[in-house]
Amino acid sequence: MHPDKPDSWTPAPASVPGVDAEGRPRAGTPADAPEQPRQVRRIVRLFRPYRGRLAVVGLLVGASSLVSVATPFLLREILDVAIPEGRTGLLSLLALGMILSALLSSVFGVLQTLISTTVGQRVMHDLRTAVYGRLQRMSLAFFTRTRTGEVQSRIANDIGGMQATVTSTATSLVSNFTSVVATVVAMIALDWRLTVVSLLLLPAFVWISRRVGNERRKITTQRQKQMAAMAATVTESLSVSGILLGRTMGRADSLTRSFAEESEQLVDLEVRSNMAGRWRMAVITVVMAAMPAFIYWTAGVALQLGGPDVSLGTIVAFVSLQQGLFRPAVSLMATGVQIQTSLALFQRIFEYLDLPVDITERADPVHLDQVKGEVRFESTTFAYDDQGGPVIDGIDVTVPAGGSLAVVGPTGAGKSTLGYLVPRLYDVTGGRVTLDGVDVRDLDFDTLARAVGVVAQETYLFHATVADNLRFAKPDATDEELYEAARAAQIHDHIAALPDGYDTVVGERGHRFSGGEKQRLAIARTILRDPPVLILDEATSALDTRTERAVQEAIDALSADRTTITIAHRLSTIRSADQIVVLDSGRVAERGTHEELLERDGRYAALVRRDARLEPTR
């Protein structure tokens, strides 16, 4: 890999807020206390598109709470009136009312669960789509410094970890809060003195739950980082390339031990996360469970001491309400803990949503229906944020429509970077690059994608069929169009000879095909796309001479009548180029045709002689 390739670039840590050079959140970035209100408001905004459905949930919650608190009052009437007075008809109506109350409460509960779960899943979908869409808009530089497993972990583990919070916490919060308020009001209606006794310890319980929530939030941040590290390790070491490297280097056992160590750290964090505050919450549970006994004792002592007369029905109804208060109150505190924990997950997702997108489409972009293909580099300069000098420094080159330009030079000269400026994989930091006289930064993305095709040295194929990989360039392509593109790329006969033909699954990253076959598949895919401008980034440098000839024939077919910019390592492939530019440290050292540059006997001639010496060994 060449230094001017994006893969070797390590950006300045300050270039992405909250993310280090490997794409992981930096230490100290979890939601701090002053940031929590702003973050909570941002979370609430996620639910705004569904406020109508949430309003229905609120009505159902309120109705369910009112119905549930009615039961103790019915019970009091049964104990104080219906049974003592022998009123069988009233007893039957009250008992029927208790059954109807339970039935209505269950129906309301099912409906609110259905609606709230649907809303929660839609919010999850919105978050996943937003993160994926943001990442699709990031420049190539972001992905060269970020581990693939880290990105996958954000989308899968972090958003997946928020599922319970998003789908049920909001409803649980409203439901339990409504139940607590309704129950406390009912308790006051029964006996305000017993209510005061019951609620004396509530402030202490709230304080404990907040402490537990903060503790779990901090542990969750560490846990998610560790899960992301494990995901990155699995993605890298269990890919086809990773397995090949591990086996051939004899590192399989070492990789297993390394993974075991990371997994052991995750075990510790999972245990700490689940046990955080368990003893304190257990104390709360015991105290609240003991409250009925305390109420019975308080009422009994008050009666013996000549205090206010409280009927048996009132005491039983009050204890019933208190027991009904116990479940939502504990659940409310647990929900508070869960929200605190989830803030760490939301923070990690918001970090990705807040990543600055440095390659954007203008508000009023230029759309070209027909692209001729003239490419100009006008005083073009490009520098990475973390490097002192420019990688590309003031280059002026014109490639006429249908013409060909070859870019050569030593490793690290800036060849690939120059080519990547045309499709805006990077944006210039000085000067400009134009397509048919229009700055590529002013073109809409659709025009640029249709106009410029890239065939790179490292061909990427999806784990899908040959036909699916080809149709990625043109989803509506017919079978005959696939065959024509494959024939032009010198790969049709090979595909047709496979047992499943174009329905053959290529395997992960195309490992069922050789390097030359993958390159020809990539060329066929580009032919199907039919771009007027073509960037060939050392497309044959890793191939043997025989395979190179076959691929070169496919490239010649692809390059016909197109504007072609070839980043070349093997100079034998670019001798017929209309113009050859020799780069050195980002500057144009020489330019001319193959014959002109040989006559000058300069840098290009030296590269040709070196290439000739190496040719027999290939």
UniProtKB/TrEMBL annotation:
GO terms for molecular function: ABC-type oligopeptide transporter activity; ATP binding; ATP hydrolysis activity. InterPro entries: AAA+_ATPase, ABC1_TM_dom, ABC1_TM_sf, ABC_transporter-like_ATP-bd, ABC_transporter-like_CS, P-loop_NTPase, Type_1_exporter. Residues 55-341 form the ABC transmembrane type-1 domain. It is a multi-pass membrane protein. This is Multidrug ABC transporter ATP-binding protein. Residues 375-610 form the ABC transporter domain. The chain crosses the membrane at residues 54-75, 90-115, 170-190, 196-213, 282-305. It comes from the Bacteria. It comes from Streptomyces phaeofaciens. Its main location: membrane. Belongs to the ABC transporter superfamily. Siderophore-Fe(3+) uptake transporter (SIUT) (TC 3.A.1.21) family. Keywords: ATP-binding, Cell inner membrane, Cell membrane, Membrane, Nucleotide-binding, Transmembrane, Transmembrane helix, Transport. GO terms for biological process: oligopeptide export from mitochondrion. One of its GO terms (cellular component) is plasma membrane. Residues 1-36 are annotated as: Disordered. It is found in: Cell inner membrane. SMART domains: AAA (SM00382).
